[in-house]
Automatic annotation (TrEMBL):
Coiled coil regions, renumbered to chain: none
Location (main, coarse): endoplasmic reticulum
CDD domains in alphabetical order: TRAPPC5_Trs31
Highest taxon of source: Eukaryota
Keywords: Endoplasmic reticulum, ER-Golgi transport, Golgi apparatus, Transport
Gene source species: Marasmiellus scandens
Family: Belongs to the TRAPP small subunits family. BET3 subfamily.
Subunit details: Part of the multisubunit TRAPP (transport protein particle) complex.
Protein known as: Trafficking protein particle complex subunit
Database matches in PANTHER family: 41-2 PROTEIN ANTIGEN-RELATED, TRAFFICKING PROTEIN PARTICLE COMPLEX SUBUNIT 5
Subcellular location: Endoplasmic reticulum; Golgi apparatus, cis-Golgi network
Record InterPro entries: NO_sig/Golgi_transp_ligand-bd, TRAPP-I_su5, TRAPP_component
Length: 236
């Protein structure tokens, strides 16, 4: 049994390797004593509001600085870019990160809806669900609604959400060798997660559609699964 735990997990080794022997311990990694913890609690040093104690229904204090979000997202893109083999892989990973965010956004929105309304309901029809994403999800994540929601005239299973100035693209400088990259793949992941959570599975991708006046204009393309259209026909 001792040999199985001879080497710590790589994600934990940075600290445990330095503290593996009693003589190698450092004050940088030492835990405060019980007396120190008691003194801190009595003096009020640890009385700062805890994020877990905030009321989830209050949105005024939940807003995040746009510059802070842009800086964090830029770091995420740079970190991910160093660990991928190409544009497709980078967009796939950004999409996966967005999907994780979208799951939590939907949970939060459902919680707030159920708390504020006695007769809350989950959207099961396609168009109201897309309108909710266009308006409420965009406002919850980016602080404003998207600019347009359009239906494809060629394919009945395709819808498009248009954002003329995406926050995730605003402070991103894409080099020429990555000119086809759309960082809004992160947003596409959010949309895909919300649709999956609402029982409307779809494949969601992001495409840069710039114009002379709107160089960052982006289209989020939603391609619905066949089962969604079949259910819509039954609900008519």
């Amino acid at each position: 049994m001792s040999s199985a735990y001879a080497h710590p997990h790589p994600r934990l080794s940075s600290v445990t390797s330095a503290a593996s022997s009693p003589t190698a311990s450092s004050s940088r990694f030492s835990l405060p004593s019980a007396a120190t913890l008691v003194t801190a609690s009595k003096s009020g040093a640890g009385q700062r509001p805890n994020i877990y104690d905030r009321n989830l229904n209050k949105t005024r204090i939940a807003e995040v600085s746009g510059s802070a979000f842009s800086f964090l997202f830029s770091e995420v893109v740079q970190y991910t870019q160093k660990r991928v083999s190409g544009i497709n892989d980078l967009e796939r990973r950004l999409n996966t990160l967005g999907y994780r965010v979208g799951i939590r956004v939907l949970e939060l929105m459902i919680w707030r809806a159920e708390s504020s309304s006695k007769a809350s309901k989950r959207e099961i029809r396609l168009l109201p669900a897309l309108m909710s994403i266009h308006t409420h999800v965009w406002r919850a994540v980016f602080g404003r609604p998207a600019d347009a929601l359009e239906k494809s005239v060629e394919n009945a299973d395709e819808y498009m959400i248009i954002d003329n100035d995406p926050l995730v693209e605003r402070h991103i400088s894409v080099p020429k060798d990555l000119s086809q990259l759309s960082c809004s793949s992160f947003t596409a992941g959010i949309v895909e997660a919300v649709l999956d959570g609402l029982g409307l599975p779809a494949r969601v991708t992001a495409h840069s559609t710039p114009t002379a006046q709107l160089p960052n204009r982006t289209t989020i393309l939603i391609k619905l699964e066949k089962s969604v259209l079949e259910r819509e026909e039954l609900l008519k």
